[in-house]
Amino acid sequence: MITLFHSIWTTLMFILFVGIVVWAFSRRQKTEFATAASIPFEDEEHPIQSDPDAERPYG
What pLDDT is attached to residue 3? Predict the structure, then answer.
């Protein structure tokens, strides 16, 4: 009985894996992933204001 459960579980996980791979490489996701990949290279709209008191060394 446990062997049947393991076989069904393995088959379901393999189908899930194949589904995720197909989704990830589908043409509909290409533009969305390209946009997400360029996020680290975009300039910030508002630079972070540094607090001058925070830059002082302790002591």
Answer: 96
Q: Which residues of 17-49 are buried (b: 16+ CB within 10 A; e: fewer)?
A: eeeeeeeeeeeeeeeeeeeeeeeeeeeeeeeee
pLDDT tens digits along 28-56: 888 898 899 999 888 877 656 666 666 66
Residues 28, 32, 37: CA angle, nearest 5 degrees: 140
